[in-house]
């Protein structure tokens, strides 16, 4: 089984897991062209498509892929804004593809129906979790966002996180602003800078690394709580308030 990140749009990745016989699972194909090009070049055939949420940069290529590969099975959250024939899946269910089980977890926050998928090795988090950050809270509430982040943080730490955007460097600047004495974070930032200089993706990254470095997974730490408190000018220790303060701070943060 081989994992590939296909760049799409300005900073999206379409992830593909490809079996030795060429069958592939494709996650969040916002565009068809990168998938069609890779499939033609490398001789693989999409067998399943997994969708994490309804945003067009995650689902925009599905119809064209279904036209090219009529047998492809599509799995999506229960969400009327995904107007595509699909198997609907939710929390606790799992999808079988390429002999692997993809477990579904419900992670509202970025959108209210966002889901993530994980195997024993990989976590496909869509826009719910980025390296050193998380998706904007467009529809969810702070308690939902915190619960979703906690759910992701409780998954096996060896999972490799495959998120849908290359935002690591800009997230790193904010994360270091929040948590300036975190040595693991400084090291991750340096490594990510080197990867981008070589035009390599900074992903996937282990969940273990994110637990050490990502401030949105560290709202229970004194360092992150102190930074949010200083930013808001009042003491904040309730994690719902910490995650809400952090998310709002990041939304207005310009590097
Ligand atoms: Zn999105």
How would you sum up this structure in a few lines?
The protein is an alpha/beta fold.
What does this structure look like?
With 255 residues, this protein is an alpha/beta fold. The chain has one domain (2-251): Metallo-beta-lactamase, Chain A. The protein has 9 helices and 12 strands. α4 packs across α9 (239-251), α5 runs antiparallel to α6 (183-197) and α8 packs across α9 (239-251). The structure holds zinc ion. Residues 11-165 form the Metallo-beta-lactamase domain.
Name the features.
255 residues; alpha/beta; Metallo-beta-lactamase, Chain A; 6-stranded mixed sheet; 9 helices; 12 strands; globular; binds zinc ion; Hydroxyacylglutathione_Hdrlase; hydroxyacylglutathione hydrolase activity
